[in-house]
Amino acid sequence: MSRAAPRPVDIAIIGGGLVGASLACCLAPLIERHGLSVAVIEAAPMGNLAETAWQPSFDARSSAIAQGSAERFRDMGLWDAMAEQAAAIRRIHVSERGRLGVTRLLAEELGQQALGYVVPNAWMGRVLHRRLAALPLAWHCPATVEAIVPEAEGHRLTLSDGSQLRAGLTVLADGGRSGLKARLGIASDEAPYDQVALIANVEVSRPHGGTAFERFTREGPIALLPLPGQQMALVWTHASGRETARLAQGDGDFLAELQDAFGDRAGRFRRVGSRHAYPLTLITARESVRPGLAVLGNAAHALHPVAGQGFNLALRGVTDLVAALEQALEGGESLGSLTTLGDFEARRFADRHSVIRFSDGLVRLFGIDHPLLSHARAAGLVGLNLAGPLRRSLARRAMGLER
Ligand SMILES: Cc1cc2nc3c(=O)[nH]c(=O)nc-3n(C[C@H](O)[C@H](O)[C@H](O)COP(=O)(O)OP(=O)(O)OC[C@H]3O[C@@H](n4cnc5c(N)ncnc54)[C@H](O)[C@@H]3O)c2cc1C
């Protein structure tokens, strides 16, 4: 069967998950002002775009969203809808199990209503995809990219739905799931943490008052993030293999073990929803840009969720890419040129490295089980409580709420 001639598009986004969908929404003003043609290719079937159901990116997780990210969504005209199911983080409480040190941060100390927000991923997906449905995009779903071939002015993409695209700029936002990065010869550094994040929603016996908890235990960090009502989003890190039993055990036993590991500071754990596990590896792509190609989100960097930074970092990448594209359009530069993409990479480099170093360092610092280091950490947390600016910075960064 002969295939139709390739359809030219300015931008092809591979992956319509959190990052790809955010990028498409962020491009809306450029689509309108400059008549950009954009195609989004998403592998997971979504049915009706306005009724996004379960899929790999918009799953049972909830994300800590920094104020800066909320502002970015506000600029895209999406925050009011996202806020309908968001809970504000008004306090952050960081502690280490078995040690006295605690550091706290209150929004009112900083003269703010909230330090950040927690939004269910499935709801973010719903809001993003409703907006996508209203944009003049070519939406290929479910479809994957079967072949990607570099050409003089971009890439030629062959899709599983039979179409072919010739894209001036291709953005890889597939979460690193498609194997395309490797097929393009983009190498990645991978450092497994030998840990698995078990996530679930839990109900607590008393109002959380907007408190987010980060508790470091011998097994790994436990984060509890506020959700509307008395629900909290749990991210419980386990040594690889230890999560299997906890995924399988009855709710009562699970809640009792969680209570034992976490203590009483959030009240009693009363109920737990479905549990899911995510193996954790630090993955960083060695290249983020090539002529006609940009790599974004988890495809560029998959981080440990301890500091809730992955998506916040990626969203800054989305807005910096769109800013570089806007500048190119205004200056008559091509979207996929190395001048345009080099400008984007220059904006991203320092931020990306500092966030990766910070969240990786946090996991490793609290992962070392040595009594002296443990005392030093406890003293550090107590000291931080006294040292205002440092404490604010650590607590905000630990929750992914500061750039
Ligand atoms: C347990 C956990 C908790 C987290 N908590 C936070 C947090 O609180 N705050 C925060 O900022 N970050 C958090 N993160 C990180 C955040 O979830 C990721 O940064 C984010 O999901 C990355 O989105 P993405 O779109 O790049 O990739 P993904 O979410 O993996 O989405 C990729 C998309 O591409 C599609 N796709 C895959 N292959 C193909 C293909 N061949 N063709 C077309 N489409 C394809 C997939 O179907 C999917 O829709 C957490 C991560 C984990 C694991």
UniProtKB/TrEMBL annotation:
Q: Which UniProt keywords apply?
A: FAD, Flavoprotein, Membrane, Monooxygenase, Oxidoreductase, Transmembrane, Transmembrane helix
Xref: PANTHER family: 2-OCTAPRENYL-6-METHOXYPHENOL HYDROXYLASE, UBIQUINONE BIOSYNTHESIS MONOOXYGENASE COQ6, MITOCHONDRIAL
Question: Matching SUPFAM superfamilies, A to Z?
Answer: FAD/NAD(P)-binding domain
- Organism, scientific name: Billgrantia campisalis
* Record PROSITE patterns: PROKAR_LIPOPROTEIN
Gene3D superfamilies xrefs? FAD/NAD(P)-binding domain
Question: What EC number(s) is this enzyme filed under?
Answer: 1.14.13.-
Specify the domain of life of the species encoding this protein. Bacteria
Q: Keyword Flavoprotein: yes or no? A: yes
Asked if the Swiss-Prot or TrEMBL record annotates the protein with the keyword Iron, the reply is: no
User: Which pathway?
Assistant: Cofactor biosynthesis; ubiquinone biosynthesis
Q: Where are the transmembrane segments?
A: 12-31
Instruction: Mention one GO molecular function.
Output: oxidoreductase activity
Against NCBIfam families, the record matches this protein to: PRK05732.1, Ubi-OHases
Cofactors demanded by this protein:
FAD
The name this protein carries in UniProt is: 2-octaprenyl-6-methoxyphenyl hydroxylase
Annotated family: Belongs to the UbiH/COQ6 family.
N-terminal signal peptide: none
InterPro entries according to UniProt: FAD-bd, FAD/NAD-bd_sf, UbiH/COQ6, UbiH/COQ6_monooxygenase
Q: Which residues form the FAD-binding domain?
A: 9-334
